C-alpha cells in the first residue's frame, strides 16, 4: 500500500477528496476492506487488545465502510458508526446488516450522538486532518463513560512532504485529558497493512477517569 495520505477515512473534512466517488473502491486497500484473512486477523487481534474486555458501546468515528465496526461487533460490542460520506455509511450499514450497529452521517469532530455515552471511542486516520485536534479530543473524551477509553490509530505518512500527527504530539494533547496513555507501535507489523511500510504508524489508547496515578503519562507498549 502506498505510504501517503490517501490512506484516510472520509471524516477528513479538510481534504480535497471526493469520498462519495471513492466509496465503491475504498475497500480495495488491504487495511480498509480487510479482505485478506491474515490482515483481518491482525486487526481483530489488535482491536481486541485495545477495546474493553467486556461487551460495551463503541463509537467508531470516520468509520468508512465499517470494517473496524464489523470486527468490534464480532467481539460482542454494540457499535455506533459516524462518517461524513453518505455512500460510506450506506456500505457500512450493508456490511453490518442484522447486527447491533447503527451508522450515522455526520462530522467526526462533532458526532451527532446527542446525550449517548460510550465505553470506547475508536478513531482511525482522522484526527491528524482535523483543524483543531485538541478540541476534538476533548469533545470525544466527553462522550465517554467514566473509565472509558479513546482508541486512536494515527501516523505520519510520506517521506518528502510528511503529513499526519507524530505520536509524541498526540500524547501531549492527551496529557490534560486522560489518566493513562499507552502507545502501540504498528509500523513493524506488515500484516496490518498488507505489506511492509516505512513510515510512522501507531495506536494510542487513552483511558479517561481511570486510576492512573500520573496523569497523561505515555508508556510505550510492551515496556
Explain how this protein is built.
This protein has 223 residues and is of the alpha/beta class. It has helices spanning 19-22, 30-33, 37-50, 67-74, 86-95, 133-141, 167-174, and strands at 57-61, 78-83, 101-105, 118-124, 144-157, 163-164, 180-185, 200-207, 218-220. The chain is 26% helix and 25% strand. Strands 1, 2, 3, 4, 5, 6, 7, 8 and 9 form a 9-stranded mixed beta sheet that branches. The radius of gyration is 16 Å and the shape is globular. The two termini are 29 Å apart.
Poorly predicted sequence stretches spanning 5 or more consecutive residues: 1-14, 210-223
Strand content: 25-35%
Helix content: 25-40%
**Helix-strand pattern:** HHHEHEHEEHEEHEEE
Alpha carbon gyration radius: 16 Å
Count the helices. How many?
A: 7
Topology:
Layout: H1 19-22, H2 30-33, H3 37-50, E1 57-61, H4 67-74, E2 78-83, H5 86-95, E3 101-105, E4 118-124, H6 133-141, E5 144-157, E6 163-164, H7 167-174, E7 180-185, E8 200-207, E9 218-220
Features of the shown structure:
single chain; 223 residues; alpha/beta; nine-stranded mixed beta sheet; 7 helices; 25% strand; globular; disordered N terminus; disordered C terminus
Summarize this entry quickly.
The chain is of the alpha/beta class. The chain has helices at residues 19-22, 30-33, 37-50, 67-74, 86-95, 133-141, 167-174, and strands at residues 57-61, 78-83, 101-105, 118-124, 144-157, 163-164, 180-185, 200-207, 218-220. It is built from 7 helices and 9 strands.
Amino acid at each position: 500500500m502506498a505510504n501517503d495520505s490517501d490512506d484516510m477515512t472520509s471524516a477528513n473534512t479538510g481534504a480535497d477528496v471526493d469520498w462519495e466517488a471513492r466509496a465503491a473502491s475504498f475497500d480495495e486497500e488491504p487495511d480498509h476492506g480487510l479482505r485478506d484473512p491474515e490482515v483481518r486477523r491482525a486487526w481483530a487481534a489488535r482491536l481486541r487488545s485495545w477495546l474493553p474486555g467486556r461487551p460495551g458501546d463503541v463509537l467508531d468515528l470516520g468509520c468508512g465502510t465499517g470494517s473496524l465496526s464489523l470486527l468490534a461487533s464480532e467481539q460482542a460490542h454494540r457499535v455506533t458508526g459516524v462518517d461524513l460520506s453518505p455512500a460510506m455509511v450506506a456500505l457500512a450499514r450493508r456490511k453490518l446488516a442484522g447486527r447491533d450497529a447503527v451508522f450515522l452521517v455526520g462530522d467526526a469532530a462533532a458526532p451527532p450522538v446527542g446525550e449517548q455515552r460510550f465505553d470506547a471511542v475508536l478513531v482511525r486516520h482522522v484526527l491528524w486532518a482535523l483543524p483543531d485536534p485538541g478540541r476534538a479530543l476533548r469533545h470525544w473524551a466527553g462522550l465517554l463513560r467514566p473509565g472509558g477509553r479513546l482508541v486512536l490509530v494515527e501516523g505520519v505518512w510520506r517521506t518528502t512532504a510528511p503529513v499526519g500527527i507524530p505520536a509524541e504530539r498526540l500524547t501531549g494533547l492527551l496529557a490534560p485529558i486522560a489518566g493513562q496513555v499507552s502507545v502501540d507501535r504498528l509500523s513493524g507489523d506488515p500484516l496490518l497493512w498488507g505489506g511492509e511500510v516505512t513510515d510512522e504508524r501507531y495506536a494510542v489508547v487513552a483511558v479517561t477517569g481511570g486510576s492512573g496515578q500520573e496523569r497523561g503519562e505515555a508508556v510505550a507498549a510492551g515496556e
